[in-house]
Structure formats: structure tokens, C-alpha cells
Amino acid sequence: MKSTLSSAALLAALPLALAQDNYGPPPPGPHSGEPWSGSAWGPEQRSTSWSGSWGPEHRPTSWAGHGWPSASMAPSAAMSSEAMISPSGAMSPSAAMSPSAAMSSAAMMSPSGAMSPSASMAPMSPSASMAPMSPSASMAPMSPSASMSPSAPLSPSAPIYSSAPVSPSAPISPSAPVSPTAPAPPSATPYSSAPVSPSAPVSPIASGSATISSAYATGTSGSGNAQSCTPLTTAEIEAMGNNTLFTRWRSHSHFIAPAGWMNDPCGSMYDPTRDVYHLFYQWHPQHINWGNISWGHATSKDMITWEDQGGWQDAEARAMGPSGDGRKAPTDPLTSSNYNGLGIFSGTAQPVNLHGEQDGTLLLFYTSVSYLPTSWTSFYAPYTETQSFAYSTDGGATFEQYAGNPVINATTGTPPMDWNVTGFRDPFFQPWPALDAVLGCSEPHYYAVFGSGIKGVGPRMPLWTAPASDLTSWSFLGALWEPADNTTLGPILSTGTYGFNFEVSGFFSLPDKSGELHYFVNKGTEGGNVSFHESAHWALWNEGNVSRRDNGSVQFTPIAGGAGDWGLSYALTSFNDTKNNRRVQWAWAPEDLVGDGGLFSATQQGFQGSLTLPRELFVHEVDGVMNANNAVSDSRESVLTPDAHGTFTARTLGVRPLPDVIAGITASASHQTYASGKYTASKMLQQQGSSHMELKASITSATGAAGVILAASPDMTEYTTIMYEPANNTILVERLHSSTIDGFANVTVTGYFAPYILAGSAPEAISMDIFLDGSILEVYVNERFALTTRIYPSMECSTGYGVYVAPGAMAEMSAEAWVGTGNVWPSRPADSSSPLLWDSAAETDNYKWWSGN
Q1: Are strands 260-271 and 607-608 parallel, antiparallel or unpaired?
Q2: What whole-number distance in Å separates Cα of residue 840 and Cα of residue 845?
Q3: pTM confidence score
């Protein structure tokens, strides 16, 4: 059944949802092996039938954060549709996935991990016939060691991780209450001078728009490709074979694996000895689901066009994968070659050797995995995750494992493994002279942070250090700061929630326009509140003050924060682009598939996931900002510094797509400008655009919701609306009409954005920069807001674009379009698909480690 949740319904529900929220620790999940079956899962009734049993990780799912099937599925405990895979590679294939058909692309595992290779789940054979049932693919028994330890005591040495006492059951900080609604701008401003009807739909053919002929059947895109207006149907897609829709919604202006499953960006770096950028990624080649995770590899001279290293076919681009037989019980990693036998999880890279010298060596620091499944909700087996090096001396053509791996072994007698941890993974390491100065180091050091947490206490970001002269000798410096479980710095609407576990953490400094350094962290958070954000995974950042504790460790005290991406992107990581003296961020953009257990169209596409556009992080400053009613300071997104005029300079983390990369991908696009004008109704600007384009809009004043329409069909049966809603300071991507196909998620995606009110009570103009590339849709606003989502129109001709104004409102705005962005993979064919494989029960420990497809 199609969702009928409009943006108005979502907005109206926000205060109630927040008022009913509970920030306590999660209730226990169902018992392992407990059967479930039924129909009409959740309020949207997206699933027609489901059955199975809960896996050992006790991981239920939410339906996109809207509605719960029972009180036991509380938002604070449930994993969202995107939250079923730990994008750092720490996927529990036995996670108790919701049987709901409303699961997203990231939720593709069966509830027990024992996936039956049915036609809806397994890769189809070349003849599109039903894949044969694997006799050993029956429900896997629960691993005794993977069950939840309900009363596991915290280690008595806990204070090593927490310089200040933290109550395991500490509620959300009283000083950081959740604001039910974001403060609206003063009524005197142009953004709110007239009542807004948030429930008003897009007018299909607004007054003053071009007439659309109902007889229109085909056209051409900005790139000259024919566009069919014959819609694909759910039944047609389900009957198709492997890879038959490989090019239909695939991006070509983004970084994406040749084929197969991909998730986290890894090891991004610039090699100054060869003038080459390297980027690695979590990859499961020739499969459409997570498993046997490896690192793929590509290089570039400019971060615009990319080249697969080793080739694009099958698994040729794999830089390194798990070693050992991968089927042993966990053993002491100091004596076993199996330390990375079950996965090469996420990590980072530097163009140095083990002595910190730039001699052409490329050094990869990653999490080696010897035990699966793993999850923050389940028992954490010793030796599950260790930290290891791989290196190349031939420019990345080949990599060798360091003979002394793992370099951080985390045995039960060393921190943080003498803790009851939720995880310990994703090393983010770099040299850092500024931190050397804070700690008073006599020689240069490298620093590494990891994603972690303490069960029943809170998420953690442990910090380690090693002298640059010996990067195999690491020392533990404690946790940067000690948030309690599921707390937040400010209102959840603006700063998000820390959840129960951190992943893919980062720690870095950026200069402001005067040259003063400011310290930032980023992290993925797991298990957090979902009443506003559609996923229990958040991608967050914080700015903080940094100081040296009495015991010699580093104290990070957050002073501001927000979401690095308000949509489905996760696993945000960054690197210092020394060639251009800037910090560049990459993020994983999963698919947003729903039907057939969250695998709808996955085998037909033959791939899942891509990365976002590369983004520049910088200190964003705006002068002359008013703080009426403490609206800016209460949001905690910005730090305010008073000036001599009674106003403030507002400082926050800035984010924008790399300008040189955007110039490169739009160089051959068809460019159109639309002069500023006053609109009293929505209006189509072009009926024929492209599914690969950039669209900018500048809204200088508006009395209600306003923005743009894109991916619109000529008859307006399909379209996507992106708008700023001044009634509650939100950016919305309304996908209710994005596709007529039932198998794709169509919930409205929402992010918080409050324009600054400047001296004279005039609000900032709203500057939107939007990129559509196949199914991936990225929205940037005023260089301090990012949101990523997916759309899958059923018709190739759904490429029109225009301006949106809510009925009864007026907006003054201009627009600019680049239609037909370029291909950044010139050496790949458009169809770089590879044959899909199914792993055997023996290769997956009877599908306990991963699903096999």
C-alpha cells in the first residue's frame, strides 16, 4: 500500500512525537529464536506477510521513524530501516531484522541471518529462473556467545574511560531539553508575514505554467538520451533478471563501485610523491548485500574523474580482503593468522611509512575482524575487532599486511577491551601538530580516534597516540568526552542524539578566517531517537574546546553541534587535502529500497550504494546576526561571538560540495538561468530536463513554504518537491509522488535549518544547491546544511523541473540549472555489472556471518 504521509502530516506530528519521546535505555528485545509471523506490519501496512524468528542480536526495526507496531518496539531501542547494517562493516547478519517490507536498502538481511535464497532475496540465475534452495540455508541456530548478556557488569576499571562519573541510567541532560518545535522567525520577517498552509500539495499545473500536453510520450534529456513515458511497474521489476536495471537509476557523476554492494568510504588521501588521490571503500563485489567485506580502490588526479585500480570487472578493483580460512573460532590475535579472517572493516590512510616518513609508501590503518556477528546491542566477544596495518610500496597496485598485526590488539587485559564495550572500530589517524602542542609533546605524534561505547553507560570516542617515528607503538589516552546513553547537546531537532554507540569517528581542527583553530569531531551514532530523523543512525558533528587533563589525556567539551547529513547518508569521514589545503569529506549514500524484505530491485540493479559528492568542511561565519529570544544560542548549532554593534558573529561547521569538482561535472552540461521573479504559484520551468543535473534556487523572501520541483513527469503523476518551511524551520524533501512504484521508500525526509536573522530583522536568503544523479539526490543549503536521499521515478521522462510555492503564499526567487552532468568514470562502460554470486552455507557459517547474496 502506498504511503499517504504528507509533509504536513509529518510536520503536524513532530511536537506530539517529541513530547512522547523517552530517552531512557532501550527495553530488552525479543528472545533469540522467538518466532514472529503475521501481516500488515506497522501503520503503513507495507508488508503483506512475514514470518521467521528473532536473531541473537535482538535488533528490531523501525519503519522510517513513523509509527510502531507495538509498545515493545520503542524508538530508543529499535534499529531503523537504514540501521540494520553497521556501515563500518560491523554488520550482524543475524540481526533481528524487522519483517516489515518498509525496510530500506540497508536492511536486507533476514531476521536470523539464515537467508533463504528465494527469488525475492537471492540473485537470479542468468535465465531469471528461481534460484535453487540451499539445503543448509535453513534458520541458523543462535550462537551461544552472541546472545545478550543481560547482567554483564561494567568493568571496575571504568574510570579509565570516563574522567567524570557517569550514571549508567542517566537521562538526557536537564540542561539540554528537547524543544518540541524549533523557534519560528519573528513574524515581522518576510518568511512569516502570512499564514502558511503546510498541508497544501504541489499544484500539478500551476497558474502561469506552461501547458503540458497529455499526448506527450517521449522526449530527450539534456544529454540527448531518449526518455520514455511508459512507467515501470512493481510486477515488471520483480519479473526481471539480474542486472537488467543496472543503468536505470545508476549515478555517473558520483563515486560508485563498479558493481555489487558498497558502503563506507575508507582511506581517502593525497599521495604527494605521485600527485594522485586515493579512495577506498567497503565492498562486497558480485553480491547485492553486505558480507565478506573488503576494500575496493580507485584513484584520481583531481577528484573529478576516477580510475578503478586493477580493473572494473568482477572483483578486480579489490585492494585487500579477509585472510585466513575465515571459519575458525576467535583465537588470540597475537598468535593467530585469523585476526582479519572475517572482514576488513573501515579505516583511514596516510602517505607515509611506519616511521612517519614520506617515501612513496601508502599506509592503511583498518579494523581487522575475527568474530561475527557483532552489534552494539549484543554481547561483544573478545578479539572481535583489532586494529591493523596494510601498506603498499608500488603506488597502490598491491598491498601487504604488516607482519606485526594487529598493532592494537585490545586483549582482555588492555583498554578499552577491559570494558564492557559496544564496539571498537574504524581508526581515524593523522599527524596533528596542534594537538602535540596541547599535550606538550617533545616530538611529533600521530593520533587516532575510534568508534566505541560502554554498555549501559554511553557512547565513547577513545583516543590513542603513537610517536611518528614508530607508528606500531600506540598508547591509550582515554575517551575524548563521556556522554550518557541517548543524550543530546541541545534540542534534538537541531543537534540530533548521541545514541548508544559511536562509529566512523573523526577528530580534526579547522582555521577560521582569522587563522584561529577550532576543534571538531564527527561520528555516526547508533540507536538514537527517531521521532524527527527517519533513521536510528545519525551522522553528527560537534565543535568543542580541547584541553589537557591532569592525567595527560585530552578533554573535548562540546559547545555546538548538528547533523553532518540530515538524510540517509552515514559513515562520514574526511581527510586533509594537503594539495589544496582543505579538509574533504566523503559519505556513504545507501539505497532506499523497501519491498521484498528491503531488497526490492536490488538483484535487478545488480548493485547497492554509492558515495556522496566530495564535500569541503570549513569554519562558516556570518556577521551581524541577531539573537532575538535566544533563538540562535538555544539551537546549539552555532557559537555566537558579540561584536561592537550589538549583534553577533555566528560560527558553525560549514559544508559545500567541492567547487572544482562541481565545475568539472557540469562543464559540458546545458546551462539555463531563470531571473528573479515573484511567484504566487508553483510553475514548471522545463518539462524535459535530465536525471543527472544540478539545480540552484535562491529564495530572497517568502510568506510560506517555497522551493523547487524536480524529477517531474509531463503529466505530473511523478515529481519530488524540495522546500524550506518557515513555520518550523525545516528543509523537506517530499517524496510522496516521487515514484508510482510501490517498492521504493516515499516518506518525507526532513532536516532542521533556521536562517539567521540579520541586523535590521532581515533573514538570510535561502540558497539551495541540489544535485540529482540517477537515484541519488543531495541538497545543500547556505553552505551549512546537507541532506541526502534517493528517488526512483517509474518513468524515464520524469525529468522536468520548476519552482514550488505553497498555495496562498508568495515567494521571490531565482533559479539556475545545469542539465546533463558528466560521467566521472571514463574508463568504465555504462554497464559495468558483474555476475551475481551466492555464498554457500560453509562460507558463511550457515549464514550466521552474512546472508550470502
Answers
A1: parallel
A2: 9
A3: 0.78
